[in-house]
Amino acid sequence: MTATDENPLGLLPELLLAGAAAAGLLLGSWLPRRRQWAVGLLCGLACLAAAAAAVTAAPGPATTAFGGAYALDPLTTTARLVLCGATLLVTALSLGPLRGHPRESEHHVLVLLTAVGSLVLAGAQDILLVAAAYLLASIPAYALAGFAKDGPGTEAALKYYVLGALSGAVLLAGTTLLYAATGTTAYPGLAPAGAAPAALLTAGTLGVLGGLLFKAGAVPAHFWVPDTVQGSAPPVAALLTTVPKAGALTALFRLGAVPLAGSTVPWPALLATLAAASMTLGNLAALLQRDVRRLLAYSAVSQVGYLLMPVAVAGRTALAQPAFLYYVAAYALTNLGAFAVVCALPQATTTDHWRGLVRHRPLLAVSLAVCLLGLVGTPPTAVFLGKLEAFTAVFDAGYGWLAVLAAANTVVSLFYYLRWLAPALTPGAAPPSGGEDRLARGTAHTAAAASLALGVAAGPVLALLDGAPAH
Questions:
Q1: What is the DSSP letter of 345?
Q2: How far is CA 222 from CA 58, 59, 155, 226, 277, in A?
Q3: Which of 227, 324, 351, 459 could form a disulfide with 420 if both were Cys (CB 3.0 to 4.6 A apart)?
Q4: pLDDT tens, residue by residue, 438-454
């Protein structure tokens, strides 16, 4: 058993973001409309402060807080850094389009609340806390999806809400069944025991997995992803495909590494099958897309498949945790970089609209190339090392077939990324530039450079990601 720490400062990163959200609401109610950007600045500073607090607390041993309900370990620390960095980038992407909007401050606050819920998902070690974090990560996101109050946004929010409410009910039902089977909701007590009814344990675990798979956007709970991403504003689409996904996948990894590690039910085989289905369906569907946001949406579904590979073998090989954590960070940077390029030219909605980008916006074209080739898994980008580590982990755990299938899917993905990239690197007339966002361009350059830097520094970073999760 690890030591238990009841000090609220153990949750300092989460408290900083939650406090900034509350302060942002108050500040937004006093500031005139032309100065609402100050709330965005406050949110950005809160993300930096939360990341600094996570780094400061990182060197300590793996512990739990609040009766074992919250884990403080390498999984939580890495998730904090990834989610705070991703939220900072999303806030930067939102500043330009929202300037002068009557609900500008509310948007920034909703982004922070979504991040807080995702952070708690990543660190939760109690099923009840997982359910509460699911709601906190979901409800603000529903509002963000329909924030524009236009036709596509309303449709996006409705589909996201209906499927999210259904998946939340499934998660709560699973929580109830697990409590009925074991008499506890804490992860260590959920480990299979002789006295617990196997059918209840299995049904309850399936319910919890179903809710988390929806939040991650994995098959079979992926139906909301393309319509919601296409109908939402580009900064919101960037958020939905990155922040809740990272939190939910970390929660899935912790579930596999702690309570499910000794189960006789073949959970690794189930998750490996869902990983294979997600990457295959996502890539095949993306081949048919011309709308760039819809293409990135199916790309996000396929990337969940790759990310589920180390999740499937959590607790069964020491290579799974560093592979997963590194890949999550790499995906977050690269995916946000691709969406930042979309935010920079919001009128260029289809792949054909990007023709001539290299001539008129050469740096933006380079950033797009780095991010799209990065999502494929091209060296020396970070996703390449993430995929390589994930392949190694599943091979080590005896799932070589999954690595072979993932490699084949990677080849398939090259075609639809190149269908977007080829026009962008072809000389021609300038892409539609109405509403061009300079801050989004800077964010795209930053994310692309960070993706390359993370790939180059893979060795030292991977060495920091090891260490058993808290129990």
A1: S
A2: 34, 37, 16, 8, 11
A3: 351
A4: 899 999 999 999 999 99
Residues 37 and 111 in one domain: yes
Q: What is the pTM of this model?
A: 0.95
Number of domain units in the chain: 2
Beta strands in 60-177 (DSSP E): 63-65, 70-72
Structure tokens belonging to residue 242: 């990155």
Question: Residue 30, SS3?
Answer: helix
Structural domain for 139, as ranges: 13-265
The DSSP symbol for 123 reads H
Last residue of a domain, one of 250, 265, 280: 265
Q: 214, 221, 107, 225: which is closest to 156 by C-alpha?
A: 225
* Radius of gyration of the CA atoms of the chain, in A: 21
User: 259 and 301 share a domain?
Assistant: no
Residue pLDDT, tens place only, 356-399: 899 889 999 999 999 999 999 999 999 999 999 999 999 999 99
Whether 41 is covered by a domain: the verdict is yes
Answer with the one of 238, 265, 292 that is the final residue of a domain: 265
Give the pair of three-digit tokens for residue 374: 């990065």
